[in-house]
Amino acid sequence: MKTTKEKIIQTAIEWIITDDYTNLSMRKLANKFGMTTGALYKYFKNKKELFYQVSIRLYQQVAKQLVIDSEISAEDKLLSIANGLCTLSQKQPKLINFLFFNPSLNEFY
After folding, report:
1. What are 28-59's pLDDT values in tens digits?
2. Closest CA to 16 of 87, 81, 101
3. pTM (predicted TM-score)
4. For a FRET experiment, which of 9, 12, 24, 78 has its CA 20 to 30 Å from that of 54?
5. DSSP 8-state class, residue 19
6. Region of residue 69 (phi > 0: left; psi between -120 and 50: alpha; otherwise: beta)
7. Cβ-count burial of 64 within 10 angstroms (0-12 exposed, 13-18 middle, 19+ buried)?
8. Host H or E run for residue 97
C-alpha cells in the first residue's frame, strides 16, 4: 500500500509526463489530493524538495529502461544508452525537459 508521500510523488510524475512541469504548483498538487497546501508541506518542505524526490524516482525509472547487455563493448554500451535517451526524448519530451532543464535540480547535478 502506497503512503501519502508516495502518492504525491506519483501524481507529480504523472503531471510532469503529461504537462509542463512549470505549470505544477504545490497548490495545484494539493488540490488534486483534496488537501490543503499546508498539509502538503508536511511531506515536502518546498517545491524544490518535491522535484528532487520526483527526479530521483524518475532517474531510477529511466535507468531501468536503459538496461544494456553487459557482454558488449564500452563503446556499444554508450551508444545503447544514447539511443535509449534519444528514443525516450521523442516519446516523452516533457519528462526529458524536467530531468535535464529543471532549474530547481541544479544542486542535484
Report:
1. 999 988 889 999 999 999 999 999 999 999 99
2. 101
3. 0.83
4. 78
5. S
6. beta
7. exposed
8. helix 93-101
